[in-house]
Amino acid sequence: MSNLITRHEMKQFIIATLNLEELTPEEIGDEQPLFVEGLGLDSIDALELGIALRKRFHLQTAEKDPATKDDFRDIVSLVNFVERRRRFA
């Protein structure tokens, strides 16, 4: 199964969702941590991003596969999370 969203598109999505206009997708590494020491996002950003992802991709909550902080660790993890969750939809 191919990714439903590319890494570049996920970076654009994060920038637009969190109003990070000072960044470009090229400035965000695929495996750069998104929180704290990496991109510097916080828990409010995680909440906003989670809500936006659910709306944009119609993600379902899966009791057998709950979201974890590892799912939001970096761009690669986030793309994999969206792909996995879409399978449950």
Topology readout:
Blueprint: H1 7-17, H2 43-57, H3 75-88
From the structure above, extract its key features:
89 residues, mainly alpha, Non-ribosomal Peptide Synthetase Peptidyl Carrier Protein, Chain A, 3 helices, 45% helix
Main CATH class: Mainly Alpha
Through-space gap between termini = 15 Å
Number of folding domains?
Answer: 1
For the report, how would you describe the main beta sheet? none
Provide a descriptive summary of the structure in words.
This protein has a single domain, classed as Non-ribosomal Peptide Synthetase Peptidyl Carrier Protein, Chain A (Orthogonal Bundle). The model has no long low-confidence stretch (mean pLDDT 88). It is an all-alpha fold. 45% of the residues lie in helices and 0% in strands. The radius of gyration is 12 Å and the shape is globular. It has 3 helices and no strands.
